[in-house]
Write a structure and sequence with these properties.
- The protein has 14 helices and eight strands.
- With 347 residues, the protein is an alpha/beta fold.
- It binds nicotinamide-adenine-dinucleotide (NAD).
- Nicotinamide-adenine-dinucleotide is lined by residues 32-38, 55-58, 61, 106-109, 113, 117, 134-136, 158-160.
Length: 347
Amino acid sequence: MSTGPDPARPDAARPDAARPDAASPGLRVAVIGAGLMGAGIAQVFVTAGLPVAIYDSAPAALESVRSRVAEGLEILQILNENPLRLLTTAGVLADAVLGADMVIEAAPERLAVKQAIFAELDRLAPPGAVLASNTSAIPIRDITAGLRRRQRVIGTHFWNPPYLVPLVEVVQAAASDLAAVDWAMALLDRIGMKPVHVAADVPGFVGNRLQHALKREAIALVANGVCTAETVDTVTRFGFGRRLGIVGPLEQSDLTGLELTLAIHETIMPVLDRTPEPHPLLVEKVRRGETGAAAGRGFRDWTPGQAEARRAEVTRELAGQARRAAAQPPQGQPPQSQPPPGPRACG
Ligand SMILES: NC(=O)c1ccc[n+]([C@@H]2O[C@H](COP(=O)([O-])OP(=O)(O)OC[C@H]3O[C@@H](n4cnc5c(N)ncnc54)[C@H](O)[C@@H]3O)[C@@H](O)[C@H]2O)c1
């Protein structure tokens, strides 16, 4: 978390216009882009009781957004309240951002589209509003190049679907005002998300770098004939993946003892895949039209209906996890009883 202005970066030190406390009850949110992510992001804010105005340049997306948010609420079994009353649609960008304290852009992953939206937001959003992009990988500095008030622009990388996956990477670009980062972190924490501060505007931030480092090795193992795609998925799900949601890789290394991690790295680091571009097997599959479940073949073969059933299963599992997490006592409260001491986690 930030501690104040960075003397090495005077651009980042300039405080922006005053904004209300992140805990104040009357905050208003605007979401730009009512697609998959925009709808999910709107859902988490209205569920937490904050009014959201959502804008999309495609009227069809705006027409369907309320029913898509309703489906998300049903998955979480939020049936007896009506957070939808807090969601309004706006056919004009200026109307959506009127009075907004936070604006989150979730338009397509194309630099020119995002640049055009932020040029408008720079002009139309209230001066104190924090502006955030949900980009998956585009550096925030590229999106905000040439803007008048870049200091209030940050990244907020939500994961899909935001109402089931709590992480938000809050990305601080070189020009970002540290107060805007802290403010967004506090707001996201307040609505029940799990914000983390990413202190540099690096492509892929933290989560996608980790995820795609794993995918690079997974693809190489298949390409080199070491195992099948099914085996990669089985090893991940039934092996180390079982504990990844409980203990992260570095905490797990500490629990095991770093000597073991070092010994393993001495053996395998020289032989892990280091292809510096997309792996040739991935490129070739896409070229052949083997683009995944929708095409009937990707790394694995898919029969009609199989992908839909699998997606439903994943959603059900994630919803179960989200409900169990919601039923946990707030952080800082001791559990009812101490769990028994477990074996040392290693491997
Ligand atoms: N899909 C994911 O799993 C995922 C996860 C994390 C982050 N993201 C990122 O979130 C962003 C949105 O992704 P998505 O999957 O929701 O895309 P999407 O295609 O489902 O939705 C994008 C929406 O933006 C609208 N749009 C296009 N131009 C616009 C404009 N000028 N102004 C306003 N709205 C406009 C489209 O009509 C569409 O409804 C992208 O940057 C993506 O990389 C996606």
